[in-house]
Amino acid sequence: MPEAGVRVGLVGLGTIGTGVVRLLEAHSDLIEARLGFPLRLTHIADVDLHTDRGVALDRYRLSTDFKELVDAAGLDLIVELIGGTGVAAQVVASALQAGKSVVTANKALLAHKGAELFALARDNGAEIAFEASVAGTIPVLRALREGLAADRIHALQGIVNGTCNFILSEMEERGEPYAACLKRAQELGYAEADPTFDVNGTDSAHKLTILLGLAFGVHAGPGDFPCRGIAELKPADLEVAEQLGYRIKLLASARQTPQGVEARVEPVMLPRTSLLAGIGGALNAVEVRGAFSGSTLYCGAGAGSRPTASAVVADLMELARARRLGIAGRVPPLGAVELRAGGLRPVAEEEGEYCVRVQGGGDLAAPLVAALAQRGAHVTSLLQDAERAHAVATTRRTRRADLEQALAGLGRRISAPQLIRIQGDL
Ligand code: HSE
């Protein structure tokens, strides 16, 4: 009799789901050789089973109802790849309640409902694996959970949204307009179903909440730290960054301070010579600094069907092994048995070195410098470009609120003021 193997049901046949089907087909021998038993995808559920996705579905039991799949006899593991926090939450909860472990790439779900789902998994002797939820194919969660388990993490920073990184790279390298770059990111399968979540920073904030748990043992929600996106950036901001020796990246960052962990998501200017400034296209990278380990960098494809599928199937293999060995919870999902509530530093005030750009007619530099000086901001460089009708100043460490007040004081003389923090060393 052939070995029955571990049987898998997949809910959600979108970009990533289709990649998972392809990978399981393409590498079935390799996966069996590595596991010592087969990993069999047997059931697929999706509301749309008619769209041609370029994969043959006739060998699978198909259903448009996820409940039918979760209840199916003989399924060992469930993959949730619907996304969002609605039906996906029901899929994951009902699988866990049935004692079936789950693999998901759903960062929004974990950011909003992770605590209750992890508790549900524990109570039912099941597990949730979610490597693909942060930085696509890059095994950075595994690195934090296991490779760096003995170390105290001081700080991390990462480019964790492929869509935004792709848009910024294309705008900078090809000078293409924002909307056209976003459209291409959607066509390439990088963007969320609602790309607003990518460009306004929400997707990066979801991922940062997961990283905060793993790196600092802190329980946080995406609304607990400042979050800004890239939608307001103009080509002129990218040009100015280049003139000043920087590159703009959407960065998720966190740092341990004596008052708690300081976390944020925002576009920043990074020195062009820094490692993260060189990460282009849909690539992601996360840099981590630990007390003993020093600085480590994890880099690779952060989005897209094939890279994300690779992380999903690796998680399936880990859960399949655990099932065979009859063990669950070998390592807690977020690395620590309990997360600390309230471990974040309250965001009373943000401060840093900033680049300030204002647009308008006439001499802008003098009033800009005067307004900044009035608020105690020390200007370190100044640019005025009559052709672009803008003036740009960089400042020493200053409170963001003071800069905002200085810009408000300029009133109707200026339009579209832009404040971008200049990121220092990790
Ligand atoms: N929309 C996400 C991104 C997909 O662009 O990074 C991967 O999480």
Task: Give the topology, please.
Blueprint lengths: L5 E6 L3 H12 L1 H8 L3 E7 L15 E3 L2 H6 L5 E4 L6 H11 L3 E4 L2 H17 L4 E2 L10 H8 L5 E7 L2 H13 L3 H10 L8 H4 L2 H15 L1 E2 L15 H10 L1 E12 L2 E12 L11 E8 L3 E8 L3 H21 L14 E2 L9 E9 L5 H10 L4 E7 L4 E6 L2 E2 H10 L5 E8 L4
Parallel strand pairs: 1-2, 1-4, 2-3, 4-5, 5-6, 8-13, 10-18
Antiparallel strand pairs: 7-9, 7-11, 9-10, 11-12, 14-16, 14-17, 14-18, 15-16
Helix pairs in contact: 1-12, 4-5, 5-10, 7-8, 13-14
The structure holds L-homoserine.
L-homoserine (HSE) binds next to α7.
Short synopsis of the structure:
The chain is an alpha/beta fold. It is 36% helix and 26% strand. It is built from 14 helices and 18 strands.
Which terms summarize this structure?
426 residues; elongated; binds L-homoserine; 14 helices; single chain; six-stranded parallel sheet; ten-stranded mixed sheet; alpha/beta; 36% helix
Describe the structure.
With 426 residues, the protein is α/β, with parallel strands linked by helices. Helix content is 36%, strand content 26%. It is built from 14 helices and 18 strands. It has helices spanning 15-26, 28-35, 66-71, 87-97, 107-123, 140-147, 162-174, 178-187, 196-199, 202-216, 235-244, 305-325, 365-374, 400-409, and strands spanning 6-11, 39-45, 61-63, 77-80, 101-104, 128-129, 153-159, 218-219, 246-257, 260-271, 283-290, 294-301, 340-341, 351-359, 379-385, 390-395, 398-399, 415-422. Strands 7, 9, 10, 11, 12, 14, 15, 16, 17 and 18 form a 10-stranded mixed β-sheet that branches. It has a 6-stranded parallel β-sheet with strand order 3-2-1-4-5-6, sandwiched between helices. Strands 8-13 form a two-stranded parallel sheet. The longest helix is centred in the C-terminal third of the chain and has 21 residues, at 305-325. The protein is elongated, with a radius of gyration of 23 Å. The model has no long low-confidence stretch (mean pLDDT 95). The structure holds L-homoserine. The site of L-homoserine (HSE) has 11 residues, from helix 7.
